[in-house]
Design brief:
The protein has 30 helices and 17 strands. It is an alpha/beta fold. Helix 5 packs antiparallel against helix 6 and helix 10 packs antiparallel against helix 18.
Length: 741
């Protein structure tokens, strides 16, 4: 293509809203530098240049012709441009940046490489090894055109100080060379965690500055207040327990060290952790310049319990963000929501965690830290100057804990954040982290007052007599269904409630509300934690010790029941699924001999130590993750974390509407071409339940809407809903004959 064929643009635009490209680049650069300069990572200049150059590739005629066209003609212009030019600007921006970031910028080679990768991935994901570009005719046309317009762009900005340190001579002379990013970003044994955090925070700063550039926003100052006295029980019958909880909370406040980056709170189940958290938040607010507070939990039941308590005691619920796969919005908005919300949309401040208090899941924390996707990394920099409360830390797979703790140390040191790790059961991998000191007398007195007797049943038989509120808890839907059917046959006059992930979320919540003093509840682990209900008897299938302790928190919660018994049971065969075989077997050795809950608590330290010593598989996996981190293999790291820590099972998500109107809404919404899939899913997520296998594996494919099925969206045909979903056991009806791997 001859140069004379190019149109001379009066000015370059950044978007089809007539916004000058130069103004956009400078605005993003300044914001990225402002955000990253609030850390100790020394990456302000890198973030600045990432912002300054991230869209320079938009001088590609593909974009400029569209941006300059009248709105009613843009579609036609786009179709025309697609015939000649490549729809691409990120790789061209990164290629230009590689030539422009010379010695005058003061960036070392490694930091330049980090900056290039942030620019390249700002519309996709972070990569270490940048791929070669297809040498298509359209790509060559775009590259030649951009090379031509770079001279014009330099002329337009040469009077601006922001662009004065760039090596325009190198860029103009070398830009037309084949686009090949040959260098590989490397780290070393000493600095790889720092380099990982620095490079991903440069990326996050660019994303926040760019995606937030369409509106005015600022980093918050944490100012929420909590009336935690409302969390204190006024029950006279539990006065002894109230006193012990107050003493535990008092010691936690007195002995916490606000200057320490990472602290552990070893808190028995039911001790009143929420009050401890929020009182500590108030303390940190006085001693540190907090921007945000996070509460991470492994279970939605725990986050919802936390939300319930916050709602009644927080003075500014609009600044409390609830963020999970079911909902994204303020706590105030969530409470006002009735039925199915239709208001979900992409919101920058929600998606970037730019709120004072964020309630979300442990899985979201791992995704934010380890994912290489730009939509996830957008949130990372918002961890700076914050307090991170990570509840039930023992649920994080032990093989990633060493790396995670190392990353926490970097976050505490360089992002100036404080981290509280909380659990009743502290894994051996966390042994070197400082604990908040609590007097053993208080902890032991609490455990004694809420003591449970432990028995072991093998083989397991349903008792002939059940009194009070009774819970049967099993490890799988198949086992749960077997137990329910036996109980339902024997106790025909009893109030029996079935619970599992095979029941839709809406119905699970309704069933929880309907648990009575004489109910028999048959459930999987969906109520293992975060459910403020106390049972008189419990039958729990054999599981790792930390799961057993979590389940014990649903038994004799308020103390005073000397006959509270947890019966741990197993069948003749060893059935450890879905847990680790080693942890299940080591736990079984302890449970067989234990007579009380205090004994089980006492065995925890040695149990965790044995797991750590004997688990060679974990050791090898831990080393593999460390190798990936040292190589800054962003894609490999995320793939590893997805497989090892964010485990998928064979279950399929099915939409279970409660009436024909809901069915029509779901069907019509998913046929729409205009909504984001994530937005659609969140809108109806409360109407979902889990199917143990795929419809094809179960031979029930014909029961589902065929056009949606092709999109992997499982909505039963309206006339087949009763065939698919049982009113009592939900989708677990299909668990019969399913063998867990």
């Amino acid at each position: 293509m001859k140069l004379s064929a190019y149109t001379k643009y009066v000015r370059f635009l950044s978007h089809p809203d007539n916004k000058p490209l130069t103004d956009h680049l400078i605005k993003v650069a300044n914001k990225a530098k402002e955000l990253s300069s609030q850390t100790g990572l020394n990456c302000g200049d890198a973030a600045y240049y990432a912002g300054l150059l991230h869209d320079i590739g938009k001088i590609n005629p593909y974009y400029q012709e569209i941006f300059h066209a009248d709105e009613d003609k843009r579609k036609f212009v786009e179709e025309t441009m697609m015939q000649t030019y490549e729809r691409n600007h990120s790789s061209f921006s990164a290629w230009a940046a590689l030539k422009l970031l010379g010695e005058k910028t003061g960036l070392d080679e490694k930091t330049v490489d980090m900056t290039i990768r942030a620019i390249y991935g700002h519309h996709s994901n972070l990569k270490n090894i940048l791929p070669e570009q297809d040498k298509t005719e359209k790509y060559k046309n775009s590259q030649m055109a951009i090379s031509h317009y770079l001279k014009d762009f330099e002329e337009s900005v040469k009077h601006r100080d922001e662009f004065s340190l760039l090596d325009w001579e190198s860029c103009l002379s070398k830009f037309q060379r084949p686009v090949e990013f040959k260098s590989e970003l490397e780290s070393d044994d000493e600095n790889y965690l720092f380099d990982f955090l620095k490079s991903t925070c440069i990326f996050s700063a660019l994303l926040q500055a760019d995606k937030g550039s369409f509106g005015e926003w600022s980093t918050p100052d944490f100012e929420i207040n909590f009336d935690t006295d409302k969390l204190i029980s006024k029950s006279k019958s539990a006065s002894k327990l109230v006193y012990l909880r107050e003493m535990f909370q008092k010691h936690a406040l007195e002995n916490h060290d606000a200057t320490t980056g990472i602290l552990i709170i070893e808190a028995p189940t039911g001790i009143g952790k929420t009050k401890i958290f929020l009182d500590l938040v108030s303390r940190y607010k006085q001693t540190s310049k907090l921007e945000r507070v996070y509460y991470f939990s492994p279970l939605l039941a725990l986050t919802e319990d936390f939300e319930e308590k916050l709602f009644g005691i927080a003075n500014n619920r609009e600044e409390i963000l609830v963020y999970n796969h079911l909902f994204s919005g303020s706590l105030e908005e969530k409470r006002k929501q009735e039925g199915i919300s239709t208001s979900y949309s992409w919101d920058f401040e929600n998606e970037s965690f730019n709120k004072e208090f964020i309630i979300t899941t442990t899985q979201r924390l791992l995704i934010t830290l380890f994912s290489n996707r730009q939509s996830d990394k957008l949130k990372l920099l918002s961890l700076k100057n914050s307090l991170l409360i990570i509840d039930e830390i023992q649920t994080i797979p032990k093989l990633i804990l060493p790396t995670l703790v190392g990353l926490f140390e970097q976050i505490a040191l360089h992002l100036n954040s404080k981290i509280l790790l909380v659990s009743a059961t502290i894994p051996y991998e966390l042994k070197d982290i400082k604990k908040i000191s609590i007097q053993n007398e208080v902890k032991n007195a609490y455990l004694k007052h809420t003591s449970k007797r432990i028995t072991f049943l093998e083989p397991f038989e349903i008792p002939n007599e059940l009194t009070g509120r009774v819970l049967f808890m099993s490890n799988t839907g198949r086992k749960n269904l077997e137990i329910y059917e036996k109980i339902n046959q024997r106790f025909t006059q009893s109030h029996i409630i079935y619970m599992s992930s095979g029941i839709s979320k809406n119905q699970r919540l309704e069933r929880l509300k309907n648990i009575k003093p004489n109910s028999i509840v048959v459930s999987t682990q969906v109520i293992e934690a975060g459910v403020d209900i106390s049972f008189d008897q419990m039958y729990r299938e054999a599981a790792p010790l930390d799961s057993i302790i979590q389940a014990m928190g649903r038994l004799n919660r308020e103390g005073g029941n000397d006959n509270a018994v947890m019966a741990v049971f197993k069948d003749k065969k060893d059935d450890w699924q879905p847990y680790s075989k080693l942890e299940w077997q080591e736990s079984l050795k302890i449970i067989r001999k234990a007579h009380s809950s205090e004994e089980i608590y006492g065995e925890l330290p040695l149990y965790y130590q044995r797991i750590w010593q004997e688990n060679k598989t974990n050791e090898e996996s831990t080393k593999k993750l460390a190798r990936l981190m040292r190589c800054l293999d962003y894609e490999g790291i995320w793939d590893f974390i997805k497989r090892q820590a964010i485990l998928d099972n064979d279950q399929e998500t099915v939409f279970i509407p409660e009436n024909k109107d809901q069915w029509n809404q779901i069907r019509n919404t998913f046929f729409s071409k205009f909504d984001l899939e994530r937005k659609k899913f969140r809108r109806f997520a409360s109407l979902t339940a889990n199917l143990p296998k795929s419809p094809e594996d179960l031979g029930i494919k014909e029961f589902f809407e065929p056009e949606l099925y092709e999109k992997n969206i499982l909505l039963p045909k309206w006339d087949s809903l009763g065939e698919v979903y049982d009113k009592v056991v939900g989708l677990d009806k299909w668990s019969k004959g399913v063998v867990e791997k």
